[in-house]
């Protein structure tokens, strides 16, 4: 095989690796599964990939994956990362396993951390 071929292969590999990397401080949703088999209830599971800066960890801001201060996760003060949409109220679950977002109309969305 010629050296030109190998140079092309190395360049292509580097380009693929570079393009698949996230910018520092950003996240992307990798998988999103919804289960609506139960009446009046939808269970959603989401996996995100984040490239967080030092002192940050993957979390949720305004109902989207985001890099947040690691202290929030360690102390389980979930509402400090502003996980709910604008106009919604945030409350910690009693056992700090997650939070609820309450809409003005009374609808409640519960999020648990696993």
From TrEMBL:
Report a single Gene Ontology molecular function.
receptor ligand activity
A biological process (GO) of this protein is: G protein-coupled receptor signaling pathway
In terms of InterPro entries, this protein maps to: Chemokine-like_TAFA (IPR020350), TAFA-5 (IPR040329)
Leader peptide range in chain numbering:
1-25
What's one GO-annotated cellular component?
Answer: extracellular space
The UniProt keywords, alphabetically, are: Signal
Q: What family name appears in the similarity comment?
A: Belongs to the TAFA family.
Question: What is the protein name for this chain?
Answer: Protein FAM19A5 isoform X2
What organism, scientifically named, is this protein from? Carlito syrichta
Q: Give the encoding gene's name.
A: FAM19A5
